[in-house]
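Here's my example:
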Amino acid sequence: MMPPDFRSWSHENLAKLAEEMYVEMQELRQDVKDAIKAYREVITENDFEAGRQLGMKQERALWELAASTQEIMK
């Protein structure tokens, strides 16, 4: 997939995109922090299977977020 030609975008559109991506990045950062915290709690409880399942759910959520970000960039 070819990246958008950002050189042809207006300053206003680039600024809007940057603001939206910044907000999304902050939300993703918090999601990752929450996932790590939850995963550590599970590991602390020595519940390997529950930790594996939680990791899979978080990974799926991150992939979905990445896919939605790609859709925004189209």
